[in-house]
């Protein structure tokens, strides 16, 4: 992979703290620092690397991080959450006035490696990897042991981010896991190696799991100052996702342990009714529960997210600018994103989550700016959620079910479902595949619009059938490993990396 592809702007990922001495700033301006200069500065003051870590986190929500200047679906992780929800078909595109996501919804970007839609996730996640490797190199390299608390915490976050990025690459660009001999992605563990050939699925997953395992260890005593940072609970959750995707019996037992740890010691609780769905005064129509809307990083169920403010400078080009009717957005102006009809019909009538959706399928009562004025929010101050505790309950139940431990799977599932409907006793009658299917359904319902159904589809090898309200391929069924559901390696990488097929 040439540097033109495997690169990140130094300005975004080498923001050094103001504690750096004036002489150094005069000689080596931060916006021009190379990885070698960053390493030299970090030898004098490792705390400078906190700026690089902050840059990594900002890459998750900044615009243009997928390598484009003008594309309005290029705004970091939440943009690819929309990609994945559309690929899984749980999210339908209900209008093409402006056309963003139409090539995703039509499965065109997944069958054509020249399509810019196949390029943006690749560029974004390798940008994260390069930034993480810059920090790892500055601390002595991927195999260097860290004993000082500050260095451990920085290395732990960098390795967690590298593991996160490779995990998503493996989901988007590999069809399955199989024997582990399938070659899927190039691996880069430092900033100096030349173009690399594709490594096997086994090698990629070994790296992901090694990185995230070390991150858990290094972050054990890290007390984060904001939820955009990865702490031990988020690292454990990412590690659980990786083990669940690989899916051996040993892996699944580790998923159970990791998710149990987060549930019991993480200090998070399940999203309650008032946070889950909007409620209104029957006479005035005023919103009664301002804790609703999935717009506040302080929500106790949110494990990982970012507090967006005016200083972040986000507007139309954002997740809210694509999804929220109550933001100045494409969803308001003509390109609504709605729930798949088949999935909506599968939600029980007494399930609170059915109330999150308008009769048109729009998520008007799940995600919204509190002003609730059509096209109202212009500058984004509503927050992004990357992960919440419900994911751990569902992963735990799923792992138990895959291990044949139906009783424990049902108990964990009921802990969640009992807070969504008045009677969860129907779960008691389920077993085997029927139980696993129900856990998958509940994952899709609970996490609609949050980018997690695609991950479940891949690891459980589920085919998808589009409902009647899709503009494209309505009623069509696609196998989980079909070309339509996985991106090809983009042409830019094929052309610029002669080692790719070695």
Automatic annotation (TrEMBL):
Sorted UniProt keywords: Cell outer membrane, Membrane, Signal
Signal sequence extent: 1-19
**What residues does the RagB/SusD domain cover?**
331-502
Residues forming the SusD-like N-terminal domain are: 103-240
Q: Name one GO cellular component term.
A: cell outer membrane
SUPFAM superfamilies this protein is in?
TPR-like
User: What's the main place this protein lives?
Assistant: membrane
InterPro entries given in the database record: SusD-like_N (IPR033985), SusD_RagB_dom (IPR012944), TPR-like_helical_dom_sf (IPR011990)
The protein in question is named: RagB/SusD family nutrient uptake outer membrane protein
- What organism does this protein naturally occur in? Pontibacter oryzae
């Amino acid at each position: 992979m040439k540097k033109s592809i495997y690169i990140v702007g130094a300005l975004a990922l080498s923001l050094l703290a103001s504690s750096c001495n004036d002489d150094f700033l005069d000689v080596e301006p931060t916006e021009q620092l190379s990885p070698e200069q960053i390493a030299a500065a970090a030898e004098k003051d490792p705390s400078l690397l906190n700026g690089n870590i902050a840059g990594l986190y900002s890459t998750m929500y900044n615009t243009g991080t997928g390598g484009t200047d003008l594309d309005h679906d290029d705004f970091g992780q939440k943009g690819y959450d929309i990609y994945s929800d559309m690929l899984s078909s749980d999210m339908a595109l209900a209008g093409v006035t402006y056309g963003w996501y139409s090539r995703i919804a039509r499965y065109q970007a997944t069958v054509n490696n020249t399509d810019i839609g196949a390029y943006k996730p690749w560029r974004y996640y390798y940008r994260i990897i390069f930034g993480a490797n810059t920090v790892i190199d500055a601390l002595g390299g991927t195999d260097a042991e860290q004993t000082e608390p500050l260095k451990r915490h920085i290395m732990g976050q960098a390795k967690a981010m590298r593991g996160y990025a490779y995990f998503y690459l493996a989901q988007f660009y590999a069809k399955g896991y199989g024997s582990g001999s399938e070659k899927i992605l190039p691996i880069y563990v430092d900033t100096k190696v030349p173009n690399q050939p594709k490594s096997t699925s086994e090698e990629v997953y070994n790296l992901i799991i090694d990185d995230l395992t070390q991150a858990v260890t290094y972050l054990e005593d890290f007390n984060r100052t904001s939820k955009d940072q990865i702490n031990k609970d988020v690292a454990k959750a990412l590690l659980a996702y990786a083990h669940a995707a690989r899916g051996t019996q040993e892996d699944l037992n580790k998923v159970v342990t990791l998710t149990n740890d987060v549930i019991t010691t993480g200090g998070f609780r399940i999203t309650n009714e008032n946070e889950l769905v909007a409620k209104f005064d029957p006479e005035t129509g005023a919103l009664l529960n301002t804790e609703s809307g999935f717009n506040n990083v302080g929500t106790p169920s949110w494990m990982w997210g970012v507090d967006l403010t005016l200083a972040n400078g986000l507007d139309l080009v954002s997740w809210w600018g694509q999804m929220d009717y109550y933001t100045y957005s494409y969803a308001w102006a003509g390109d609504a994103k709605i729930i798949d009809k088949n999935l909506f019909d599968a939600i029980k009538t007494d399930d609170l989550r059915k109330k999150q959706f308008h009769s048109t399928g729009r998520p008007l009562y799940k995600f919204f700016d509190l002003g609730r004025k059509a096209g109202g929010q212009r500058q984004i101050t509503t927050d992004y959620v990357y992960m919440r505790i419900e994911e751990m309950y569902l992963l735990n139940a799923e792992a138990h079910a895959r291990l044949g431990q139906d009783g424990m799977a049902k108990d964990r599932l009921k802990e969640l479902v009992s807070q969504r409907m008045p009677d969860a006793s129907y779960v008691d009658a389920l077993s085997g595949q029927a139980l696993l299917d129900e856990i998958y359904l509940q994952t899709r319902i609970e996490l609609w619009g949050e980018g997690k159904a695609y991950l479940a589809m891949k690891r459980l090898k589920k085919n998808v059938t589009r409902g009647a309200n899709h503009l494209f391929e309505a009623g069509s069924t696609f196998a989980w490993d079909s070309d339509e559901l996985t991106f090809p390696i983009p042409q830019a990488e094929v052309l610029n990396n002669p080692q790719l097929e070695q």
